[in-house]
Write a structure and sequence with these properties.
With about 500 residues, the protein is α/β, with parallel strands linked by helices. The chain has 18 helices and 22 strands. The strands form six sheets. Strands 3, 6, 7, 8, 9, 10, 11, 12, 13 and 16 form a ten-stranded mixed sheet that branches. The longest helix has 17 residues, at about 300-315.
């Protein structure tokens, strides 16, 4: 019943796949079955601790400033060799916004002067040329994403210039590629959407957060439903294949009732995907969040009520819960990838392309090449002289150790598929799983007793209630959360 902590969640079936793997028709994962799990508020409270979101493992907090440009160039070169030469995914960080949203934790530049974007695009094009020299021609770009900030802050001329430069230096595909762009409806018109489609984008991610005017005023993001609707209608008119909405729960002045009204209007607009993020209030880390009146934040009970109601409403509306705040229509690529066990997770969240090397450009952008991560410098003052001098603007990175690779596989399998088969992991990494992870498996016992998962010598399976606490389960296998390697990083809470 509503208000009592019980919610209904639809997840995807893996029965046939599991039977094909090991002939065990009774061993299906709750991550892959439609059911109505009893979701206990007490259980959520017990496990609601802080931890990484695992868009990478190890997390960004473990990147090393001793990792430099020479390391990155070497690893990029190795990625071109033989079977290592995977398709590419390109990410561009466009940091400009003309107003600041008080909840924002992104690296951004707030300015009303749109002319500042021109020099940034100049230097971004220079980095594109530098990066392209490291990768063999002919490696197709299967994914491309413009993120922000506000990508639509750029003028039409700068957008055209940036995409033309990208096409000149990398092998972009036709509409078979997954090319997405983040759009702020306050900074986009029908002509903007038409231009983005002309440039090759076929997926749109739209920032909504909340339609309630009181919430919008509290976070300094005034955005009418009419503005959002106009962008969606333009996107559909121009043939965009997938539309995502970003929502945030836990913002000031939100309540179960108010967010229910937002969801009603969102469901009417019928996006293909939804990302419903937990607002992480970390004013000691993100200064702009100090503008939020903490007394107006929903109570923990109200926040859990919002989450419970959101899950119920979206599933009733036909969406599938993918995991980690993400929902999708059953026919959407994310849902299909989860059914096919090809779902992957990277710095943009869940993705359908697990086999790409990610080349990220612009300030603070994070690349993932082979068995390494690399992050660019944080500020324009560092970025401009670096690329002007012909240097890849590396700030820090990490080469993954054998232990990192093993734990990454375990964590990503759990967070994407809700299940881990032991035998393939043992074969790939040359270990005895029970011996290697003896302390971790002991820690899973309580979670198993609480009904979050099942495990034996052959597999770990997350149950339906465990889906909501998958970060906590993954944290058991994180070697960097305890002990001397702990960095003192501040993470958001799981719920």
């Amino acid at each position: 019943p509503r208000g009592q902590g019980a919610i209904r969640v639809e997840v995807l079936s893996e029965r046939a796949e599991m039977e094909a793997v090991d002939g065990n028709p009774s061993g299906t994962s709750d991550f892959g079955s439609a059911r109505v799990p009893a979701f206990e508020v007490g259980l959520i409270r017990r496990y609601d601790r802080s931890g990484p979101r695992y868009t990478s493992y190890p997390p960004v907090t473990q990147f090393d400033e001793e990792f430099g440009e020479a390391d990155y160039r070497s690893l990029a070169g190795l990625s071109n060799r033989g079977e290592n030469a995977r398709p590419l995914s390109l990410y561009f960080h466009l940091p400009f916004c003309d107003t600041v949203c008080f909840y924002c934790a992104c690296n951004k530049i707030i300015t009303a002067n749109h002319r500042h974007a021109g020099p940034y695009v100049d230097h971004l094009c220079r980095e594109i040329a530098l990066q392209s020299e490291l990768f063999d021609a002919g490696r197709p770009v299967e994914q491309l994403h413009w993120g922000g900030g506000t990508p639509t802050f750029l003028s039409a001329e700068d957008m055209r210039r940036l995409m033309a430069c990208t096409r000149e230096h990398f092998e972009l595909l036709d509409d078979s590629g997954e090319y997405s762009v983040e759009v702020d409806p306050r900074a986009a018109t029908g002509e903007t959407i038409e231009l983005l489609r002309e440039l090759g984008f076929n997926r749109l991610s739209v920032g909504v957060q909340d339609f309630d005017p009181a919430v919008q005023r509290a976070v300094n993001r005034i955005q009418s439903e009419h503005q959002t609707r106009a962008v969606i209608e333009a996107a559909r008119l121009n043939g965009f294949g997938s539309i995502n909405f970003d929502l945030i729960y836990g913002l000031p002045r939100q309540s179960v009732r108010s967010f229910s009204e937002t969801l009603e209007r969102v469901i009417e607009l019928a996006p293909d995907r939804l990302s419903v993020f937990n607002y992480a209030h970390l004013p000691q880390r993100f200064k702009v969040q100090r503008q939020i009146d903490e007394s107006e934040l929903p109570s923990p009970d109200e926040k859990l009520g919002i989450l419970s109601m959101t899950m119920e409403r979206l599933v009733d509306a036909g969406y599938v819960y993918i995991g980690m705040d993400h929902f999708a229509r059953p026919e959407d690529e994310l849902a299909v990838a989860q059914r096919n066990r090809t779902l992957h997770r990277n710095f943009q969240g869940y993705t359908t392309h697990a086999d790409c090397d990610l080349v990220a450009m612009g300030i603070t952008a994070i690349s993932a090449i082979g068995d390494s991560y690399c992050q660019n410098v944080r500020s324009i003052d560092e970025y401009y002289p670096s690329v002007a001098a012909g240097r890849i603007p590396v700030a820090r990175g990490r080469r993954l150790s054998p232990d990192d690779l093993l734990r990454r596989e375990v964590i990503m399998s759990l967070i994407c598929h809700g299940r881990l088969l032991v035998a393939p992991v043992e074969a790939r990494h040359g270990i005895r799983f029970e011996r290697y992870f003896e302390p971790e498996l002991a820690s899973l016992e309580r979670m198993a007793d609480d009904g979050l998962l099942r495990f034996d010598s052959n597999r770990i399976e997350i149950t339906a209630p465990g889906m909501f606490l998958v970060r906590n389960i993954c944290m058991v296998f994180d070697a960097y959360l305890e002990g001397p390697s702990r960095t003192g990083a501040t993470y958001s809470r799981a719920i």
